[in-house]
Amino acid sequence: AVPNNLELLELAKKYEVPVIFGSDAHFSTMIADYGNIMPLAERTQFPDDLVLNYNPEKFRAYLKPTPQK
């Protein structure tokens, strides 16, 4: 799983694709435990501005429909 996650982060960074970090919690005490993803984000130097759930306003703005061209 780690190699796949690293590749996804590298590609998202390269193409400036926003992501959402999740904890994949299977038990209530693990909710919002980002201990697995944060070392990978640091390793890939993933930019904070591409993590949508770091900022509620950015997340809401991303969800708004964009006008069709």
State the helix count. Answer: 3
- Measured distance between first and last alpha carbons: 38 Å
Strand content: under 5%
Shape: globular
- Total domain count: 1
Tell me the total number of β-strands. 0
- Mean pLDDT over all positions: 89
What's the oligomerization state? single chain
- Sheet with most strands: none
SSE pattern: HHH
Helical content (DSSP H or I, runs of 4+):
40-55%
Weakly predicted, low-confidence segments: none
Structure report:
The protein has three helices and no strands. With 69 residues, the protein is mainly α. It has one domain (2-63). Helix 1 (2-14) crosses helix 2 (37-43). It is globular and about 40 Å long.
For this entry, give a set of tags.
69 residues; mainly alpha
TL;DR of this structure?
The protein has 69 residues and is mainly α. The protein has one domain. It is built from three helices and no strands.
Summarize the SSE layout with pairings:
Layout: H1 2-14, H2 37-43, H3 56-63
Helix pairs in contact: 1-2
